[in-house]
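quick one before i forget lol
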Amino acid sequence: MQEGIGQGDGLGQALALIHNAPQQSWTVASLALRVGMSRAAFAARFRELVGEPPMQYLTRWRMHKAAGMLRSGPESLAEIAGRIGYEAEAAFSKAFKRWAGHAPGAYRQGTRIPAPNPAG
């Protein structure tokens, strides 16, 4: 959880939703609705306090989770993709390569880089 963001405010709730259910098809609008804020106010406040837009944070969190699964588990790329919210393995692979600089398979095989910290 980001420093200065508590569970009692909407942003703390939104971060908990993202962290606890990265497989959900979150949008800025759906997160804002869940925490009782307008879409515009939520997006602005999230960026102000977290330092990046909500969907950028969600993608980074998903990739961090995927990197952990690639390092430690036997799940297939398709299983990992589904667990973090990607319906298509190809879309997951493209996003992971953009984030990590390596394809997921290469990352798993040992061409590993340190996983970026999800908190920035």
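fyi The chain has two domains: 10-52, 57-109.
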